[in-house]
Design a protein that fits this description.
homodimer, mainly alpha, 8 helices, two-stranded antiparallel sheet, DNA-binding
Chain lengths: ~170, ~170
DNA sequence: CGTAACTGCTTTCATTTCAAGAGCAGTTGC
DNA sequence: GCAACTGCTCTTGAAATGAAAGCAGTTACG
């Protein structure tokens, strides 16, 4: 019915799911930024516009990458959650970040997370994926979550330091 | 001058380079299909059209992902080569193929390569990357290249088997 | 109770990109 | 000599994108 795929190649099919300029950024913000709501996702570094965001969220939900639920705390809020297949992208995000850091003109504050994730290696990725499964899928987690908090703290340290430096200059 | 990037985030910058529906397929065909010429790349599984192919090749060359040279055997032929930064995408391609194979409706013949690459693990990837460096960058390689040939043979086996099966049915 | 801020979108419209196909100026093999 | 091949380019219509404004509520707060 919906099988209008260009080919059955795994790489092609993957690109059909998130091979555009925005889908992976939304997923990035959910994974590393902990964002769950429309208005949060709208405040991306790159300035996605609301119609595109709405469209991509809809497609990602249709494709099983995300799920959408009502937020019990607010009748108009929707909560988006990562599905397992999206959590499984963490290693790819890690590689992608490492690759970008190595070959492209990244900024320091926006690549500190990528640096830590690269340094942490597969063990950190697994730990992080378990945290995400806990947050988004309700699975048990032993010990408190800490990976994203650590990444976030490192990011804020860099921002604070840069702010101090530019104040001096 | 040309720094009109949406942000300095490594993932975003990576997407600005190959975050579209075609660039990675071109790279896939060069890496796994051994394609080097325009007309070869035009015969992709997915049917890229010539203007898009021309545009993407131009952009990939501009961004340093590929290099273009005259083919000594034919005055009108151009040879495209992978740059190191593109060879460095092999692990990402491997993960991407593995992910697609796990979560998307891939076809058997087009995913056999992904299966072998996943099974081979980082050691196979490194070996393959050395072969690519040999082919595209002229670096030394000890022993004969064999990874792509092995992948190709496996692909052809599946195609042959499927052809036999459908002949019976 | 009033009101300002916030909720997830939708609509509009101009601009850009994509896609299919035909065509082209040569080059090559036979 | 001629058919097949070379890497593209051009044209044309369709589709996607992006900025901005707007909307029908809901909620927090004084």
């Amino acid at each position: 019915m919906k099988d209008d795929h260009r080919s059955g190649c795994p790489i092609n099919l993957s690109l059909e799911v998130f091979g555009d300029k925005w889908s992976l950024l939304i997923i990035r913000d959910m994974i590393f930024g902990g964002k769950r709501h429309f208005r949060e996702l709208l405040r991306s570094q790159e300035g996605i516009s609301s119609n595109i965001l709405a469209d991509r969220l809809k497609m990602l939900v249709e494709q099983g990458m995300l799920t959408k639920a009502d937020d019990p705390t607010h009748k108009q809020k929707a909560i988006y959650s990562l599905a397992e297949m999206t959590i499984a992208l963490v290693p790819i995000m890690a590689h992608l970040g490492a690759w970008g850091r190595r070959y492209l003109p990244v900024s320091e504050e926006l690549s500190i997370r990528a640096e830590l994730i690269e340094a942490g290696g597969p063990e950190l990725w697994d730990r992080f994926m378990d945290e995400l499964r806990h947050e988004h899928l309700g699975l048990a987690l032993d010990g408190p979550p800490r990976v994203r908090a650590t990444l976030q703290a490192a990011y804020e340290d860099v921002v604070a330091r840069k702010s101090r430096e530019s104040a001096v200059a």
